[in-house]
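A note from the maintainers: we've had questions about how concatenated examples are separated. There is no special marker in the raw files; a new sequence line simply starts the next protein. For clarity in this README we add a label.
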Amino acid sequence: MRGRRLAVSGALLGALTFGVAACGGDEEGTGGGGQVAGETLTIYSSLPLQGDSRPQSESVVNGMKLALEEAGGKAGDFTIKYVSLDDSTPAAGKWEPGAVSANARKAAQDKSTIAYLGEFNSGAAAVSIPITNEAGILQISPSNTYVGLTRAEGAEPGEPDKYYPAGTRTYGRVVPADHIQAAADVSYMKENGVTKVYILHDKEVYGKGIADGVAKLAPDQEIEVLGNEGIDTKAANFRSLAAKIKASGADGFFFGGITQNKGVQVWKDVYAANPEIKLFGPDGVAESPFTEKLGESQKNTYITVATLDPASYPPAAQKFFTDYKAKFGADPEPYAIYGYEAMAVALLAIENAGAKGNDRQAVIDEFFKIKGRESVLGTYDIDENGDTTLSDYGAYRVKDGKLVFDKVIKAATA
């Protein structure tokens, strides 16, 4: 537990830690920590499987299935049951807080649960982490990048402590967070000649977070920030905002948000008002439902996502991409490889716990002990915040409706 306790008194923390260990074996399985009964353990995932979110999320689920299959359906001496849950609704067409909460509670109330993989969206994770934290369940995200889920620097007041009511950390991620991505975005803008940028965001935890990060770092690269505004995601179009951006004299535009929050409409309207402007987006729009609908604006589009070109990865990743296409008949969406690694590292934590692989706290402890892991993503540690030490981001252009790898942006150069 060293290095993962929050800022509470030693005496209170000791009581919290003891309580987590003591109440995990309750009859309903809702208490924190404790031993899971039986030799079959359940790993849940929670991802948005409806609307434009579906292709990316299904690809992540496939990556998780592939990792479990390659492990023979086991972790150490334990058999693993995998259950995929949907955190979206037909009405929303994206993640929805009620669905997220229901998924987290389902996992918390299942006495066989050993790990929870999710969420895909950072705003959704802000809902589920407190639930899995109180239940003492390891939660690993393949794709959350919002800084405030794990770190105070660059976060909102009260973050990240407010997500951990049990007083200890139980959440981590295998993707580099947005303090790194924002630096990569700004570096990408600078390299492409942007001197004045106008920023819009979708007001969600993730979107506003990455927008604020870019706005903060842009001046360091001598890029003037002309605006940083939230949009009305229920608006039919954004022509008035696009006209405002053109009038500002911006030669660059950045959208902090996800495809499902009118990303395509924002993009098209901004481009229509100023066909010369360069359009930048983060991993929230790095998916086929976005790129396939851009039309003419794709020629001015620049996108960052943690996924790199297959050639930039170690041999294990080459095998992943080959095996994925052979099994599922198509190339994976960008975050499939992170889904694979989220499952793989969860299985590793269970295996490393040995005979205690069915003990929730032991598995959490083993996750936070990971150092020098040689994975499909490269070699990394999990730090005391639950963050990966990986720091490279991929820079992409769009051609024929598809992401085309441009270059690797390293943290040092960003």
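[label: protein 2]
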Amino acid sequence: MKRITAILSACGLVLALSLPSWAQTALPTHNVTLAGTVETIDHDKRVVTLKTADGKFETIDVPPSAKRFDELKVGDKVSVTYNNNVSVRLKPPGEPAVDTGSKTSTMGEEVRPGGMTSVQRTVTATVESIDKNASSITFVGPGGWKYSRHVVDPAVFEKIKVGDQADISWNTDLKVTVE
């Protein structure tokens, strides 16, 4: 059984990467929707297990920022929607690094537990490794942050090398609805 956070964290591994020339490239939006009925709640570990319509069980880690977690009850219908838009731009040599971000949230402000969170961030990362056999590129950024992408177009490997820098920008939103 996979945790939804693992799904969300790994979403970058399943999207296609295309880096033509030195231009900025928007990658396909990655959408994940999980809906089901609350089967169990572990308040100490902040974990909820949902039973989906197809009878599968999905476990969700609930962050401490979810202010109204204690209001959730077994039997509640929950829907979680995650959208991730990513773009990558190779940086010309000498261009300064960036690390910017912003976050907005309505979590805990609605009639029922849930709400929406939106995060925008841009960081400069360095190409740490290129694996042509696995068709992937791994970037490392501020604080040792790592990000791997599957590459669909093999021509990308001719345009990028270990040590190159790129700005990786993403706009992520998460919506949680409790009925």
